Amino acid sequence: MPEPQQRTLMLIDDEPGQSRLISALAAREGWRTIIVSNPEEAISALDTRQGKQLSAVILDQWVPGDEAGNLIREMKALRPALPILMLTTSASPMLAVEAMRAGATDYLVKPVAPDRLMQALRNATSLEAPKDELTPLTEKMPVTLDFDAMIGTAPPFRDALAKAAKAARGHGTVLIEGESGTGKEMLVRAMHAASPRAKASFRILNIGAVPANSIESILFGHEKGSFAGAFDRQIGVFEKCDGGTLVLDEIDRLAPDLQEKLAETLISGKVKPLGAQHAFRIDVRTIAASNLPLTDLVASGHFRRELLDAVASSKIVLPPLRQRSGDIAALARHFLTRIGEQPGLNHLSITEGALKLLGAFDWPGNVRQLQAVLFRAAVFCDGDALTAEDFPQLRELLGDQDNDDSPASHDGVGVMLYAEDGNLRSLQEIEADIIRLAIGHYRGRMTEVARRLGIGRSTLYRKLSELGIDSVA
């Protein structure tokens, strides 16, 4: 039985249904939940015996932003170390900025998957996890739906983009593997935008976020009366996506008994709803995404070989950020540009010292975590540039990195003229490095790369082919 001091949660929510759901989820992990329905009750509860044992607060932001911010500030004034997570239906970056400046630890946009909510709660209260700065932030910024928005020059990353661009033009199934936060959803959306089905229906189904007893009905649909509680016919996502694209995210979490039925559906091109007498044909382009290598799961007996074969006509692997640390500088500048466009935030540059610090971390949350850390730092930065001082938790984790806090005008990398044996490298190798550097510096905008290098776009693509550099535009 966990100690109350470590496992007591206050939920500020006036919706009984949601309160019961969150309380049940928290109870599974040993939390006892105190539910209050308004700010006045919340402040009063802090002074009670249970309130003094609180380890976290979840605030459902149903009141206007200023009032929510005032409540957070008042609670933080009374209990400075108390983590506060805000739930909201608003995807406004301005609200995220206001909540964080008021003292919120995390900001989650509804609907939020149960796993994501509980992970945020674990992160906020873990004694081992870095506080605040490394907490994932579910803030929303407009997404550019093309391959030029995918920043990076590392060969494995460019190879993945090249394969994705080629696969986007076809109709076969695609499997995208990569750790959480590597950019799988962004890649999927770019592929859809570049596909022949770009104007047709497009849906993403996160299998891990759907209750196990509902997933079959959601995928394939059901007929009225097919099981207890089936009062009406339900159309499954395959039927809803007929003619378009269906993305099955976290397919590695699909129950074994459904893997066989999904494989049959993909192979035959026919869907049979629960309780139906006959199957019917559909035309759906399926893209599957997995955080884990499915080949390993097949070897361990947790994933069916026939389903792997069915979903992987093309296979794309997105490398983790720690395997392409040379891209961090370009990614940081790109994110800071986008962050600076959000209401309430300034356009910031970043110093060499800060980039060295970012480059020294291994980023277990990958690109998504880097974006969240930069967003948080930008919210609290009073200057014109982010320095190493703006990342206190990273400095605490990594120590001093011989920081040079002069403005960063380069990517912090150069082109090597000499090989390890002391001899000059070939002109072809040096030229390839310069082109890669330019692609990263100009964030993959190939027209700009060609202009800055003083060559035509067609010449640039010829050189990419001759030098074996994978890229898309």
UniProtKB/TrEMBL annotation:
Sigma-54 factor interaction domain span: 150-379
InterPro entries: AAA+_ATPase, AAA_lid_NorR, CheY-like_superfamily, Homeodomain-like_sf, HTH_Fis, P-loop_NTPase, Sig_transdc_resp-reg_receiver, Sigma_54_int
Residue(s) carrying 4-aspartylphosphate: D60
Keywords (A to Z) from UniProt: Activator, ATP-binding, Cytoplasm, DNA-binding, Nitrogen fixation, Nucleotide-binding, Phosphoprotein, Repressor, Transcription, Transcription regulation, Two-component regulatory system
GO terms (BP aspect): phosphorelay signal transduction system; regulation of DNA-templated transcription
Cellular compartments annotated: Cytoplasm
GO CC annotations on file: cytoplasm
Main location: cytoplasm
Keyword Transcription included in the entry's annotation: yes
Residues annotated as domain Response regulatory: 8-125
Pfam families: AAA_lid_14, HTH_8, Response_reg, Sigma54_activat
Keyword tRNA processing: no
One MF annotation (Gene Ontology) recorded for this entry: sequence-specific DNA binding
Annotated TM spans: none
SMART domains noted in UniProt: AAA, REC
Function summary: Member of the two-component regulatory system NtrB/NtrC, which controls expression of the nitrogen-regulated (ntr) genes in response to nitrogen limitation. Phosphorylated NtrC binds directly to DNA and stimulates the formation of open promoter-sigma54-RNA polymerase complexes.
Protein name: DNA-binding transcriptional regulator NtrC
Organism: Altericroceibacterium endophyticum
